[in-house]
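Students often ask what a 'structure token' actually looks like in practice. Rather than answer in the abstract, let us consider histone acetyltransferase, a protein of 464 residues. Its sequence is given first.
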Amino acid sequence: MGQKQQFSADPRPDTKKKRRVAFSNIDTGISAKDCIKIYLVCTKEEVGSTDSLCIDPVDLNSFFDDEDGKIYGYQGLKITVWFSIVSFHAYADIVFDSTSDGGKGITDLKSALQNIFAETLVDNKDDFLQTFSKDVNFIGSLVADGEVLHPKASSNGKSNDSNFHLQAANSDLEVIRLPMDNMAGRNLYSHLVPLALLLIDGSSPIDVTDPRWELYVLTQKNNDQLGQTYPTLLGFAALYRFYHYPDSSRLRLSQILVLPPYQRKGFGRFLLEVLNNVAISENVYDFTIEEPLSQLLQLRTCIDVKRLRGFGPIQEAVESAVSQFKLGRLSKKVSFPPLLPPSEAIEAVRKSLKITKEQFLHCWEILVFLGIEPDKHMEDFILAVSSRMRDDLIGESSDAEGKQVVDVPTDYDQEMSFVMFRSTNNATGVETDESRANQEEQLKKLVDDRLSEIKLIAQKVSAD
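Now compare that with the structural description of the same chain:
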């Protein structure tokens, strides 16, 4: 990590002395995201070039001690970080005009950067450049003893055909499992932590001392200029294996990332499909994802809908739900048939595909939508989705009707003191027309968002 202070040609020492005794401006600081740029590089020639891939971290400010995530005490500060995706080391080039304590102290930049890059941060630029040749097989040396996993073709919906096309076109793709009770796995993950912190929203390092963690890395074999073959790391995933009574386990995906240079090429989908196969082949209870972001949830749902469309045991249930719409005039009925799968279908999906009930229900409406004719049945479909979401979010009307909440005087905590009772004359109680209107407006927006999601997933699945 290099630090350079830039000096002017005419420092004017007398003027500076006067400034020391004058009232100085309060240091308002600078946001970390406004003065730090981070580049991913594959060769030493890319170091120093702004044409290299510049990443957009999720939240740089959170790594700095100040409560507002700002850097204090520097004028003209610029920090450029070069991160090698060959050796997985980093070097920070720090340049500033001057430093002064404007009332908030002077931020310890080295400590702050080590919060992100830890042991991967190299102090000397020459040492960093040497890692491109010295550690050219860094990934290969660590995954050499790992377990190689492959997707498995199947005719019952347990695999995704598009991923086999991807593997056929890239026969050098491998997913390798490294347990955390293995030193190689721990060493590799420690070098991946900066990428997880910078590119996975809300991420924190896993506990590598816990053997129930497993690291899955996606690699591709490439040849260098001398004809030597080395694996390139395209992405990785961290899974936790929970105990499930009495003699099973549950797999939870905690982190997954495809490195920016390799995104939008189908590699994330390929990696997820391999993880699905692991869950099935090892007969875990189910496979879950921890707080998936919208993009990951969308990808997962596309994969699961395709698997479910080829899963025979639920086809009769899907056709039965679709037939309800083909009968027509649901909108004229007092109540709608529930847009839910039967319990035996939910259990069959969990047992065979390891898809949780929550995720299956998320996919169910999409499966039904794919079976109806939108130009004929869309009005009824919208009403069914709206009815289901109303029950989920607001509750059954019969259960909520007549309930009242009344504040009561107290010397304790006014916000915690109230009485709820059911009115016998169907009075609306404290619920006003305005609150009901707001509730309906929020429900309408949620329904619109859900319908947009259903249409988008259906379009993607149909196009594959």
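One point worth highlighting: The CA atoms of residues 390 and 443 lie 7 Å apart. Ask yourself how you might have guessed this from the sequence alone, and why that guess would often be unreliable.
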